[in-house]
Every structure is written in C-alpha cells, then in structure tokens.
Write a structure and sequence with these properties.
The chain has helices at about 10-15, 40-50, 70-85, 95-115, 125-135, 140-150, 155-175, 185-195, 220-240, 245-250, 270-280, 330-345, 355-360, 380-390, 420-450; strands at about 25, 30-35, 60, 65-70, 205-215, 260-265, 285-290, 295-305, 315-325, 370-375, 400, 405-420, 455. It is α+β, with helices and mostly antiparallel strands and about 450 residues long.
C-alpha cells in the first residue's frame, strides 16, 4: 500500500514501497513499478553480500522464526538506493534500520498468517508478476532477466521475493479487502471530509428556472395572483410534469427557450437566493416559489457537483476478454497456456476473438463475445485495469492472472466521456473504498502484529 490519504509518514511509505530491488510493489490489488531499472545499482548490490556474510546474526524472533541482520541490511540498501534515486532526504541509518526491522517483523507475522490459512502462490502467478514488471519497463521478460543478471541479482531470489509479495497481497485481500463495503453515506462523508461540501466555492449547479415576473408597481392583488401562478407551476413540477414544457409555457425569463436550463455554473455565479434554496437538494428536486425583486422563481436541480468529485471528463475504454477460472481440473499454468494458444490463433487469423469468447469464456460477458461495454477508470480490479490501460485499441494482452482467474484482454475503442452525477459518485465510491481499505489494512496489520510473539535480540547493525 502507499500513502494515498492516511499514511503516517513519508519514511513509512519508502519502507512499504521498496521490498524489492526493482521497486516492484503491491499497491491495492495489483503489482506495479515505482521505479525504473537502474544498472548503476550493480556495484552496491554485488558488494553487499560480501560485507554482510561475516556479520550476520539474529536481530529478532517472530513466533520463533528468526529475522537476521543480513535481511535488514539488504532491505536497507534497497530503500537507500530508491530514496537517493528520487532525491529524498536520508534519515540516520540506525533510525532507518529500526524502521525496516519493524516492517520486516510485520511482514513476517502476516506471512505466517498466510501459511495458517493455506495461501500459496504457483509458478504461473510469479511468472505473470515478472512479466508485469517487464511490461511496465517496456522491455521483454528476457531483457528483464538480462538486466537483473547485470545488476548481480539472482533470478531465483528475485522470483522468491515476488512470490512473497504476492502471498502478502493475497492474505490482505482475504482478511481485509473482502470485508470492506462502501455505502452512500460513506461517499457523502468522503466528499465532506476531502473538500467540504457546504462551501459554496466548491459547488457547481445546473438549475432549470421558471420566472413569473412581477411588474414594478403591481398591486397587492396582482402580486397575489402571480404568486398563485408560480405556486401552480411548482406544484405541477413536483407532481412530475415536464419542467422544460412548464418553462416554455409560463416563464418570463430568457432561458425559457432552452426549457429554463441555465447550464452547469459555479455556485458563486448564481444568485445567492438560488444557491441557498437548492444547495441541500438532490438532483430532480424542486424549490420555490422564491420571491425576488424580479418576481417569483421556481427552480429544479438538474445536476449538482461538489469539489472532491473526480474529473467530469474521463477516458473510457471498451474492451473484451476471455476468462478461464482455475479449478482442480484447470490449474493456473494450464489456463495461461490455453489462453496463450487462443492468442496465437487470433493473431494468425485462425480464430475470432468474439467466437472464442462465446465458446470458452467463463464470464457473464461470454454471450456478448466477451464485450465488457464502456468502462470508466476504477470499474475493474487494479491488476485487470492496469493491463487493459497498457493496450492500444486493437491490441491483445498476454494472459493475465487476476483474483478471478486468467484473462485474455483486447481493447477495441477509447473515448473521452463526460460523467453524469451518478457516474461521478461511482468514481468517488472507488476513492472512498481505497481510503477504507487503507484504514482497515492498518487495523488488521496492527492486530496481526499484536498477536505475534516478538523477541528482540541484538539491535541491527547497518
């Protein structure tokens, strides 16, 4: 996880983001790179084992499982390299070493819980993670291995590190992610916390308007008559009548030709009378009649945006996929091999993606030839979305392992789209979920750590 909203410190973020030398980290539910391959690291990496081999000793026991000084020093080297790469201020080595020791203790306790739960990772998942790292660096898996060797990194150790990260990812998914739910109240709370939804400066409104004008010097009887007309308009609007037609029939305002619609405007550009009457209303609600020097106003909230919402214009993707779910009859490696065969058939023109999806995909989209429809950012799990976003229209992915199985993805189209309020709230739902996941992960991590028996030995020697 990274410091999205509630991480305690930048230093803690470095520790969480640098378990692997290539800065391959687990963020949310998907592997991603937080740095680029750097051949200049080779000398430090190659010299570290020689220095550490004569000074190794146990610094802590986690439920009788040792953590060695060598482990702390190796992690320390990786963290320092990444911090130096990005120009981050470097704390004292002994302080950083103690922080790293605590991080390793937390990970060890979580790995032990994963073992108790029977969580394992097969070779296909590790290979998929390796391929993801290569793709993020825009190189082939073979080139990745060549650069690892040039950096003095043993491929087996690298893959074991990857395996450990995937195990941590899966135990966190099982123990934390599956239990997090986001309600509409959570979305509202998130918006208020982030920006303050009651601040007029953060509010945009699209209102429709009917004005029943009151002539200057009108008698009391005439004013009462016009007020009754405005009340009748408001009653009909609340009863479900077409507001645009009401505006065309009864409004004296220039907007009547557009059905009374102002268009989306910042609240600061609307009369205070209108904002005060509508800021707490939901889209579709009607306010009024309201009295102003111009006459009586009836307002309908067409659309409402608050700061804290995502951008109104997003890039949407239309993709197809073929999903094979793993089972005792179909291992993950077999599913990867089968989809790789489908990919080759499609690329050579021997088969059609849509036809293969209809015949073989184990997803609800199979009957539509794997068509997932137009998707906004955040609609798919991160590991799927990351692979999809890396494709250009017309391109196919390599077989991708996700929590649902193994996918073959093809991107068909992309477009820029303006989100309505419901779609924006769904975007906010994803942000609110991430925040709740961060909070829940922190609580779970603390609980897992508190239930582990930790015995400190000699302090680490960086």
């Amino acid at each position: 996880m990274t410091d999205r909203f509630t991480a305690p410190s930048r230093l803690s973020t470095w520790l969480l983001c640098a378990p692997l030398l290539l800065a391959s980290t687990v963020q949310a539910q998907g592997l991603r790179l937080s740095g680029q391959l750097n051949p200049s690291r080779a000398a430090a990496t190659q010299s570290a084992p020689a220095q550490q081999s004569t000074a190794d000793f146990i610094v802590a026991l986690v439920n009788s499982e040792p953590v060695t000084n060598n482990e702390v020093r190796q992690r320390l080297l990786r963290v320092e390299q990444q911090m130096a790469q990005e120009g981050a201020p470097m704390p004292a080595r002994d302080v950083l070493a103690r922080e790293i020791l605590e991080q390793i203790i937390n990970e060890r306790a979580q790995m032990q819980q994963a073992t108790e739960l029977g969580i394992t990772v097969d070779e296909a998942a590790v290979t998929q993670a390796e391929q993801s790292i290569a793709a993020q660096n825009q190189i082939s898996p073979d080139e990745l291995r060549r650069r690892l060797a040039a950096d003095g990194i043993d491929i087996n150790r690298f893959r074991n590190d990857l395996r450990g990260q995937i195990v941590l990812q899966r135990v966190r998914e099982r123990q934390v992610d599956s239990r997090v739910r986001v309600t509409d109240a959570d979305i509202d709370d998130f918006i208020r916390e982030r920006q303050g939804s009651n601040d007029v400066a953060s509010l945009e409104l699209n209102l429709a308007h009917v004005l029943v004008a009151v002539p200057e010097g009108a008698s009391a009887e005439r004013i009462q008559e016009l007020q009754a007309r405005a009340q009748g308009v408001a009653d009909r609007a609340r009863g479900g009548a077409d507001f645009a037609q009401l505006a065309r029939d009864f409004s004296d305002a220039p907007e009547r030709a557009n059905g009374g619609v102002f268009g989306m405007r910042a609240a600061s550009r609307l009369p205070t009378l209108f904002v005060d009457a509508t800021r707490a209303l939901n889209p579709g609600a009607v306010a009024g009649p309201l009295r102003s020097p111009a006459g009586f106003h009836v307002l309908k909230v067409i659309e409402k945006r608050q700061a804290g919402m995502p951008a109104a214009v997003v890039t949407q993707t239309r993709a197809r996929h073929i999903l094979l779910r793993t089972s005792p009859q179909l291992s993950q490696s077999d599913a990867v091999a089968r989809l790789a065969g489908y990919r080759q058939q499609i690329a050579s023109g021997q088969a059609n993606f849509e036809a293969l999806a209809r015949e073989h995909s184990q997803d609800g989209s199979a009957s539509q030839g794997g068509d997932l429809g137009w998707a906004s950012p955040g609609m798919f799990v991160p590991e799927f979305e990351q692979a999809m976003n890396a494709l250009r229209p017309g391109e196919m992915s390599a077989p991708l392992v996700s929590r649902f199985g193994v996918h073959l993805i093809r991107v068909d189209e992309r477009r820029q789209s303006t989100l309505n309020q419901r779609e924006q709230r769904e975007q906010v739902r994803g942000l609110a979920r991430e925040k709740k996941l961060d909070d829940a992960l922190r609580v779970w991590s603390q609980d897992t750590r508190s239930r582990a028996f930790v015995e400190y030995r000699d302090p680490p020697q960086p």
